């Protein structure tokens, strides 16, 4: 098989949640470049319309679909939209997640805990379940975090949710194989809007932050860094991989 064929996603259909901006947008754009039809989805219509329009303007095939991934009914409608427009689903990327912010455990409210678990873990459960019900073969990729193991002081609710994503991923690899593969990418720090909100940094602070946190590659990540690994996990290049959690974090 040629290198180009190894990563070719032509005639495949991908759903990417949270793809109106940030990491999800990077994933949607790269999967389209690899040949996939892409359903771009988030809660903000304006964002996904722009991403979808950009993809189509360079010869790709994409449609936008507004969806709150914490709502079972909306996620089910997302799957139906993909099938109605493209005939099937081959790839499902569960990218949505987030934290209510850095808060010590003694001060963390039940509301913030529940909100983070719903957005970061329950949404992945819903996405995986709906994907499994509507896919006959293909690849599910969950976006996890480097924070999913070890200590995450003052952000334990987010770390716990992402740890749950890892276990869910490994478990579903056994349940859904061999037809459907299920893997995850544990992302390091990527300066998206959510990152700046949680970490409370400005763009000019990033070089110092990368140095202080001891990242061997001495920079923070980009959406493209994560998207490249997602493409690998969706392609024939990773055909004998399932249940894996791949860390992409600049070495830290």
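^ structure tokens above, recovered residues below v
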């Amino acid at each position: 098989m040629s290198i180009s064929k190894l990563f070719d996603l032509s005639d495949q259909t991908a759903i990417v949640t949270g793809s109106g901006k940030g990491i999800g947008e990077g994933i949607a754009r790269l999967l389209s470049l690899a040949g996939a039809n892409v359903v771009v989805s988030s809660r903000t219509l304006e964002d996904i319309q722009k991403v979808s329009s950009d993809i189509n303007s360079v010869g790709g095939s994409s449609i936008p679909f507004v969806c709150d991934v914490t709502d079972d009914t909306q996620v089910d409608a997302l799957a139906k939209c993909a099938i109605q427009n493209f005939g099937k689903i081959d790839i499902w990327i569960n990218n949505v997640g987030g934290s209510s912010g850095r808060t010590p455990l003694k001060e963390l409210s039940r509301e913030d805990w529940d909100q983070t678990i719903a957005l970061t873990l329950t949404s992945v459960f819903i996405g995986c379940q709906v994907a499994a019900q509507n896919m006959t073969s293909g690849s599910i990729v969950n976006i996890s975090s480097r924070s999913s193991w070890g200590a995450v002081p003052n952000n334990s609710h987010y770390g716990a949710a992402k740890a749950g994503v890892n276990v869910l991923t490994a478990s579903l690899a056994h349940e859904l194989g061999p037809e459907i593969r299920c893997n995850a990418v544990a992302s390091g720090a990527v300066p998206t809007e959510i990152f700046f909100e949680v970490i409370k940094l400005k763009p000019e602070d990033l070089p110092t932050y990368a140095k202080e946190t001891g990242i061997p590659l001495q920079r923070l990540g980009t959406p493209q860094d994560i998207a490249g690994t997602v493409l690998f996990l969706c392609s024939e290049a990773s055909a004998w991989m399932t249940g894996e959690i791949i860390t992409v974090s600049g070495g830290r």
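The two ends are 34 Å apart (CA to CA).
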